[in-house]
Write a structure and sequence with these properties.
With 164 residues, the chain is an alpha+beta fold. It has 4 helices and 7 strands; from the N terminus they run E-H-H-E-E-E-H-E-H-E-E. It has a 7-stranded mixed beta sheet.
């Protein structure tokens, strides 16, 4: 599928939020139960790597962004990956294109490690991350409850061969 990858703009938030809500609805994308308002989301994500994938018609098909893992200066080059693809676009290569751009943008911003916490049931996300060079580094067992059930989270990371 041909998509145009562009920096995310504040006016993209309604479409980005809708895709985030689709991910929340699956029950396997995040512990979050609701999407935040723009101001909260904006404050929690790095400005250097926020991307939307658009169709030829301009519709947002997916998005990717990074958030800092810590405020400590020694972790300035480590970021957490968020990547979401609209339900109608899953399996079409949008996620791979977003991930490739996210990696390039992260390296341009001096980030040497990308990490992701993924529910083990989210097979598609694990496969996407593996294709992009992430490796499993551990599993946090029963790390949090969701709807009264304990959930595990697999930890994956990718080290840059360009930065660090």
């Amino acid at each position: 599928m041909h998509v145009c990858l562009e920096p995310m703009r504040p006016e993209d938030w309604p479409a980005v939020r809708a895709i985030y809500l689709e991910g929340i609805t699956t029950g396997n994308a995040t512990f979050e139960l609701a999407a935040p308002e723009w101001e909260q989301w904006d404050a929690g994500h790095l400005r250097d790597a926020r991307i939307v994938a658009r169709s030829d018609a301009g519709d947002v098909l997916g998005w990717a962004a990074l958030s800092a893992v810590s405020g400590r200066c020694v972790y300035a080059g480590v970021a957490e990956v968020s990547i979401y693809v609209a339900e109608r676009s899953r399996g079409s290569g949008v996620g791979r294109q977003l991930m490739a751009r996210l990696i390039a943008d992260s390296e341009s911003a001096g980030i040497w490690t990308l990490q992701a916490g993924i529910f083990p049931e989210n097979i598609a996300s694990i496969a996407l991350h593996e294709l992009a060079g992430f490796r499993a580094v551990g599993r946090r067992e029963r790390i949090g409850q969701m709807n009264g059930q304990w959930r595990d989270v697999g930890l994956m990371e990718r080290r840059s061969s360009v930065v660090g």
